[in-house]
Amino acid sequence: xxxxxxxxxxxxxxxxxxxxxxxxxxxxxxxxxxxxxxxxxxxxxxxxxxxxxxxxxxxxxxxxxxxxxxxxxxxxxxxxxxxxxxxxxxxxxxxxxxxxxxxxxxxxxxxxxxxxxxxxxxxxxxxxxxxxxxxxxxx
Length: 139
Description:
Layout (H helix, E strand, L loop, with lengths): L8 H22 L1 H10 L9 H29 L4 H27 L3 H24 L2
Helix pairs in contact: 1-3, 1-5, 3-5, 4-5
């Protein structure tokens, strides 16, 4: 449990919320139509979930975003990252080296398009970068 000692939990929560809202903007306002069109090419149709299901999906997403922020906070602590450059390098490491690689494996087997990959990967990269900026700068 030593990993979690001395972390700024309020910054972690705020980072998770910021990542969550980025996802809302990413998939509704910025790339939502393009993302849904790519799903439809695979015969999948994004149906707007009912109110109860939407709340559940949103809570799970918020939890997952906060879990990512917690993991980033631990990495920041142990690497002693303190600059915007450090936040960017962490986003490259975690966003490209972990998230993109994981998404790429899944998309390869699921037959999803490069466009879908770029939408989902760039969301992860930007979200991790934003979280890292918040966590590094909020002492």
